[in-house]
Amino acid sequence: MFTRRITSFILSFAIALSLFAQGTPKYVFYFIGDGMGVNQVNGTETYLAALEGRIGVKPLLFTSFPAVGLATTFSATNGVTDSAAAGTALATGEKTKNGAIGVLADQKTPASSVATWAKDAGAAVGVATSVSVDHATPAAFYAHVGGRNSYYTIGKHLIEANFDFYAGSDFMEPVGSGDLQKEGTLYAQCEDAGYRIARGVKDFDKKFKKGKKMILFQTEEASKTLRKCLQYAIDRKAEDLTLAQITEAGIKTLAAQRKDGFFLMIEGGKIDWACHSNDAATVFHEVIDMDQAIKVAYEFYKQHPDETLIVVTADHETGGIALGRGPYELHTDVFQYQKISVDMYSSHLEGLIKSQGSAITWDIIEADLKANWGFWDKVQLNEHQTARLKRAFDKVVAGKENGEQSLYSQLGGIATEARNVLHEIALVGWQSGGHSNGYVPVFAIGAGAEEFVGKYDNTEIPKRIGKVTGWKK
After folding, report:
1. How far apart are CA 4 and CA 269, in angstroms?
2. Could you please report the per-residue DSSP string of 408-428?
3. Strand pairing partners for 405?
4. Residue 23: what pLDDT?
5. How confident is the model at residue 19, as a pLDDT?
6. Superfamily designation of domain 25-322+434-469
7. What does the DSSP assignment read for 292-307?
8. Distances from the Cα of 364 to the Cαs of 243, 353, 360, in angstroms?
C-alpha cells in the first residue's frame, strides 16, 4: 500500500513537471494587477459563472496557468504596504518604506530593477500601465525617488532609464515647476532622447518604425477629460485605449528592437482604483480586462513556448473584499445590471441634476437608476432600500449631499447608496477603502514557471525571474 502511494505521488509529480516548458526564457511578460488579491480573482470567476446561470467559477485564462503561488506583501516599515513599496519589492526584490520608489528603506540608496537587469543583459525593455506612466508601480521599474508624488522627477528618470517602450494614460506633470520649467516639457525631452510619442493606436500605427523607441499614450482629447488613467473597462468607449492594445504595441515595439529577447511589465492599475471605491462590478470588469491583455501575451507564448515566461501577480490586496456577508448565499449575477462605474455614475448624476435644475424629481432619478443599475426591474429592492435611495436624493435637493471620498475620486451620495444597495443584494462586502495585508496570488506559465510554485515573499518574484533568465546572477 505504501509503495503504491509513493509510486502514485511520483507519477503525479512527474506529470506536473511535464506541464512546464523546458528551456531558458528569452521573453518575459510580467503582469501586475494592482490591488488584485485572491478574492478579487475568485470573485471575478464566480461572477462569470453566475452570468451562465450556475454556482461555481468560470476560470480566467491566467488562473489556468500550471504554476500557482501565494506571496506576502508587507513593506519594510509597515504591515500593510502602499503601491510604491510593493511596486519596488516586485521590481527590485528589495523592501522599502511606504511611499518610496526604487530605493531602499533609507529612501536614498537606489535599487536596480529586473527591467534594468534585462536591459543590461541585452534585452529590449518595456513598462506599461492602465494609469499614468509615472504612477507608483510602473515607476518602481525605472525611477529612484524618496516620494512617489515627485511626478516630474519620475518622468525625467523614465527618460534616463532609456527603455525601449513605455505606455500609459499620460504624464501627470509634463512641465516642471520653478527652475525646472526651463528644461522644457517631458514630451520634448522624450523626443530629444529619440522617442516617438504616439497618441492612441491609430497614431501608433502611423508613427511606429522598426528599431525606434516608442511611448504610447491615450489621445490628447482623452487626457483632457481624464489624464491620470485610462477609462474603466465598464465605462469604455470604442475609441478608448485598452490594456490589450498596449500589450500588442509593446510586443511589436520590443520585438522590432532586434535585441536578445525582451522584458515587458504590464500593470492593470485600475483594479486597485475600483477597489478603493468598493465597486465590485467595476473590479470584476478590470480583472477581466487584464485577462484580455494576458491573452495577447499568451498568443505570443504559444509561438515561443520554450523561450517565453508569463508571470501574473499583484502588489497588494485592496479593500478586504468579502464574498459573503451572513447568509450562506452569493448573488454576483446582479452585478451584470450595473452599467457604469460608481465613479462615472457620480459624475453622470451631477450633470443630470445640474441640467434639470429645480425641475429635478425623484421620478427622473428613479428612471435613471433603473437604466444604469437595473433597480426595480432586473434587481428587486425592498422598501427599506428604496427609502434609502430616496433619502439620498432628498439630501442632494436640500444641498446636504453626504457622499464618500475614495482615494482617487469623490463619490456622490446617490451613487454611493446605489452601490451599497447592490452589494447588499449580491451579499458582497468590503472591509475598508484602503489596502490590506492579504496574500496575493501568483500564476505562471512557460520556461521557468516551476520557480513560482509555493508560498514566498513578493521580493522573491523578481529575483526568481532574474534567476531563470540569467539576467541577474
Report:
1. 48
2. S-EEPHHHHHHHHHHHHHHTE
3. 410
4. 83
5. 56
6. Alkaline Phosphatase, subunit A (3.40.720.10)
7. HHHHHHHHHHHHSTTT
8. 36, 9, 7
Q: Dig out the grid coordinates for 399 from the structure.
A: 444641498
Residue 73 dihedral angles phi and psi, to the nearest 5°: -130, 0
Per-residue pLDDT, 5:
52
- What is d(CA 452, CA 465) in angstroms, rounded to the nearest whole number? 9
Which amino acid is it at 437?
A: N
Report d(CA 447, CA 443) in Å as an integer.
13
Of 75, 93, 96, 100, the residue nearest 316 (C-alpha): 75
pLDDT, tens digit, for every residue of 117-142? 999 999 999 999 999 999 999 999 99
346: phi then psi, degrees, rounded to nearest 5: -60, -45
Q: Report the alpha-carbon distance of residue 338 to residue 342 in Å, rounded.
A: 9
Short-list 229, 431, 238, CA closest to 344: 229
Residues forming a β-bridge with 379: 375
Q: What is the DSSP string of 194-209?
A: TEEEEESHHHHHHH--
Q: Is 168 helix (H, G, I), strand (E, B) or coil?
A: coil
Within 10 angstroms of residue 401's Cβ, the number of other Cβ atoms is 17
What are the pLDDT digits (tens) for 255-275? Answer: 999 899 999 999 999 999 999
pLDDT at 58 over 70: yes
Distance between CA 256 and CA 95 in Å, rounded? 34
| pLDDT value of position 179 | 65
Q: What's the one-letter identity of residue 402?
A: N
CA-nearest of 187, 92, 88, 72 to 147 is 88
N-terminal to C-terminal alpha carbon distance within the chain? 44
pLDDT of residue 215: 98
Indicate the average pLDDT of the chain: 94
User: What is the rounded distance in angstroms from the CA atom of residue 400 to the CA atom of residue 397?
Assistant: 8
* Type of residue at 157: H
Distance CA 199, CA 206 (A): 10
How far is Cα 44 from Cα 332, in angstroms, rounded to an integer?
9
What is this structure's pTM? 0.94
Domain with CATH 3.40.720.10 in the chain: 25-322+434-469
Give the CA radius of gyration of the chain.
23
- Say what the pLDDT of residue 152 is: 96
Calpha distance 227→193 (Å, rounded): 23
Q: Is the pLDDT of residue 210 over 60?
A: yes
Beta bridge partners of 42: none
Q: Specify the pLDDT at position 140.
A: 98
Cell triple for residue 263? 522584458
